[in-house]
Structures are given as structure tokens and as C-alpha cells.
Amino acid sequence: MEQIIIKGETKEEVYSELLPQIKSLIEGESDLIANLANVTSALKQAFPTFSWVGFYLMKGGELVLGPFQGKLACTRIKVGSGVCGTSALRKETIIVPNVEKFPGHIYCDPDSKSEIVVPIIKDGEVLGVLDIDSYELNNFDEVDKIYLEKIVNLLIEKF
Fold it and tell me: What is the 3-state secondary structure (H, E, C) of the chain?
């Protein structure tokens, strides 16, 4: 696959078109890093409002920066710190409409306004998180949560 092709206009239409393309993209590839890199690129390409898309992987009890698209990022995040660490600790997706109002938010990019973090959980263990930021307030909603969790579920077998 050379590029992601999206024709949908609503967020749900874009995700509906993107999901099978991501599935096809990762199906024949066993390398985790290659798959995570392509997923970040596909998401960033499909959604211009996403300022940063990336993965943090659990290593030695903390989240360590993995493949991403966007500005330079924080390299390590402690479980329980910031949105990513809180998502990992709670083992649940967190939507933050305004990062200024999230206690302990870690400012890797001071221009970030909203964020969603989806934990990657296999056999009850957090293996990492998918982190997406936007320069727009209230950019993420239940539609993002549903589809990003589906994308993460496609990746679980690659871990």
C-alpha cells in the first residue's frame, strides 16, 4: 500500500474508510515498530486536526517513546503521570477536551490543546499507549474513542 485514500467527510466516515486500510497495511507485516510507524502516519494523514500521533511502549515499568508523527516529544513518562501515564494506570481511554484543565498534564508541545490516549492492553497487562494531540480544543469525542480502540485492537496481536 502506498497511501491512505480517504473520501469521507465526517469523522466517522473517515475512520470507517481508514480502519480496513490499516488492517490491510499491518496484516502481512510481523514487525511491531514498522506497524506502529505506519499506523501513526496513516492517522496523521487521515486527520489534519491531529498535531501529534504516537505510541509510548511500556519498558522497565515506564512509558518510553515509540514511533510517532509530529514535533519532538517527551521520551519517558512515568505510569500515573500526565494523560499517558494516567491512561496506563487506569487501563482506560482518556479524552481531554482542554489539556490546561488536566491536573499534571505534561507539556511536550506547549501548543497542544486537547488529547486522547488509548491504552494497549493484552492479557490484562498494559503494553503501551496510543497518544494523539490536537491544536484545537475539544477535538476528540466518543467517535474517536470507539475507532481508535478498534485500531489498537488490530495491533494487539502484533505485540
Answer: CCCCCCCCCCHHHHHHHHHHHHHHHHHCCCCHHHHHHHHHHHHHHHCCCEEEEEEEEEECCEEEEEEEECCCCCCEEECCCHHHHHHHHHCCCEEECCHHHCCCCCCCCCCCCEEEEEEEEECCEEEEEEEEEECCCCCCCHHHHHHHHHHHHHHHCCC
